[in-house]
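Journal club side-thread
Mid-discussion, someone asked how the predicted structure for our own chain would compare to the paper's figures. Pasting it here so we can look after the session.
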Amino acid sequence: MTRQGDSIHDVSSLFLGSTEHAGDSGDGAGARIAASRPSIGLVLQGHLPVYGGLWLSQFGDWIGQRSGPACLVRYEHDALTLEILRGDGRRLVMSPGQDIQHVLKQASAFIRNWLVVVPSQMPVQEMASLDADRICILTGADKAAIVGCYGLVKDLAATWSESDLEHRPIELVVVGAEQNRAIQVCEHLNRMSAEHMELELPLLGALQKAGPIDSTVRISIPLEKSISVEELIHLMHQLEEHRSDRFDEPAATAVKPPPGQLAIEPEPHSDRAEHVIASISHGQLLQEEQDDQYRHIASAVTPLVEQAEHPGPDEEQLEVTQVAEPVEMDPVRSSKLGHITDLIAETAEAARKSEQGKASSTQADGLLGLIHGLQPLEFSCPGCSEVELAVDSMGQLHLVAHVDHVDRLHAAAKWARDNARLLSSACGRLGASGSFKIMRDVITSDPDRIIQFHGTGFLLHLKGAVKTPGGTHEFCTPLNSLETAGSTDA
């Protein structure tokens, strides 16, 4: 039976092969990571709550946070996707035509945890024969999830025994549940497995809710250029054998692009969301906005500073530090200082009000004014003021929210489903008799925050800004489409 103290293993138990606990050693986490080789773990998906893809990224981020950079590999639709989590800013340089071997070789310079998500359609016999260090099962906490998880463990154990294969350690991660509930689930599964299989199923951890993740790189390679799961794991073993001592060296082995250059070169004519995200220098746009915001303040202050360049012989000398653009200044007379300070404050306040006026004219229609092709509706969802409602030319209902309020989309979607007929009656542009589809749109100006929602059914939009002689205007760029958004329960 698993004790509560066993629920969170130390770094070595996070796919690194050790069974010691973090509290048993006085060494830091960094020392333990450097002393062990990178591990290869299989990730099996049990019965998960909605949006299972989100939980996979959460799990990879959770592993990377505790035991070093992780690479989550999954087979999606017609492509093989690699996502690097907790990579400390490291990047991969990829050109069109490069294959998976080249990408994995770059990543092996700093990856500590390879996490291979096994396709759900893979037969148990093939799954049991994969040469991995660990097997981790992600499962929910409801009864159906517990039964499904037990059945998967039972099938694996039976295959190992019948085929005389080596048993792999199996660990559990319970998602969408608190720690106490996760411990109960683990204890229940251990009781059943002890009676019939004599297997121990330790609880690796509990992921209570989805949150922001530290995803450094996300690359998709067309499936025709990819390899099977067995070949993929074999290649990972080869890379680790050749570079088993690389992590003891300085981190300079990691590939980092020069400042201002792209880390990933997208394939020509590719419309995949990850390539669009990777090709946007979002930090540069933000910096330009900040630089321009106070440039006119500096031009107003400079003449005043020049007036005060020659202090009187009997007056106290003070130094003025200018916050806006750097300007060389000599000590100024204290009698001028108060006047200059007041003018700076007045100019800054006027600039702030001017910028607010421009922004309000651009955003008069809220978030809906940024998305092309949507017509706002006159009503809103009760209790979800952060969600805006609109209809498109196909008669579909769109629920639009900023990424900070993505959780409110779930409540708004339930409200829309429950009142579908009423909404159709209120708006003739929606499908008749409540037959319209419900689409969920997420808007953000931070590409890193929106990566986790790719393939989960959300329509993703990246907000940017363009400067014109008439002012700054915001716009949205779609990152996916109805065909590439993935499945949704709406």
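Post-session note: The mean pLDDT is 73.
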